[in-house]
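Subject: for your reference before the review

Hello V.,

The reviewers asked for a structural picture of the protein, and I figured it would be easier to keep everything in one thread rather than splitting it across files. Below is the amino acid sequence we used in the manuscript, unchanged from the supplementary table.
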Amino acid sequence: MRFSRSRDGDGTGWSWQANRGLVAVPIALIVVITVADVLAPQEVHLGPLLVVAPALTASFGSSRLTALVGFLATAALFTISAVRNSIFTSNHESQIIALIVISAFTVFFCRLRERHSAELRQVRSVAEAAQQVVLQPLPERIGPLSVAFRYEAAADQARIGGDLYAAVRTRHGTRLLIGDVRGKGLAAVDDADLLLGAFRSAAHRELPLAALHLELEAIVAWGLTQPNRHGGDPRESFITAALIDIPDREPRISILNSGHPAPLRLHGGRVTALVPRRYSPPIGILPPEDADAAADVFAFEPGDTLLLYTDGVTEARDLAGTFYPLTDRLPDLAPGGAHPVDLLAALRTDLMRHTAGSLDDDAAVVAVRHDGRP
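And here is what came back from the structure prediction:
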């Protein structure tokens, strides 16, 4: 993800370089209204229209700029009164007082907006740091694999959620995890962190996937019952996940799927969904002693690409309510075995085009290409 930041540090995101053209609009209005009022008949009063200038400036500028424009508008109204020799009349005095009061209120509320914007940026920064800790970036290269990842938040304000991914290097291969926590908010982040920590601490021991899955079940079951856990009823919490084991020197992969969308394999321009013979229940549904999971083995040859994703991708809808056809679109997005980075860039562009730039749910994607070089 990319995060935009303010250039001038006042909390509004305003900068002279980006908005200097807009600044000319309220200044031009002040000049036009002043000239028109001076040239108008004595009974016509256009001075009250000067209040538009600071109000318009507040929509794009900082509180300091708004105050400056308000000062210029007040000075223009004084100029009009002096030219008309009516500066001490009750009519112009009331106009000047009203303009000063309205400008002051506009600057005050503009300043409140800046403060709220600064607080929101701080919250986003903390959320971004938390995401970097929970979702540690994957390396671009793991053994014989080229790797790329991407996380897209459904809302611009939400930088972290329940989608998760991780990779662990073992002596003979690489193990991957992709998952999606039920729910949102702190409870989802807490559960995601719990599963990721368990996976990172156990995957390198090269347990069979079924044994690794059983250990993850036990740790998650323990974590869901802890008194310091955020969220509601632990019986309603679960995590869909897929565990993947990719050996370095064998053209195959093992996948243990716990209710997660089936990974996709690209081979020779064709896409195959690696659907298990039997899905295991999501992690956290059953007590560890009742968990019964088995891994499936699929071909994965040099030159093949594996795409892991969460349902935020396949359940993304267009304006007509049609789901994003990931399987159908993938061959066009990865012509000639594109590098994972290029594949995910093309996928994001196509997904945003399909949804008109708005996702209904967070989406995580990991692309892994087997380069055949241990």
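For the response letter, the relevant points are probably these. The first strand starts at residue 141 and ends at 142. The first helix runs from residue 16 to 39.

Happy to draft the paragraph if you're swamped.

O.
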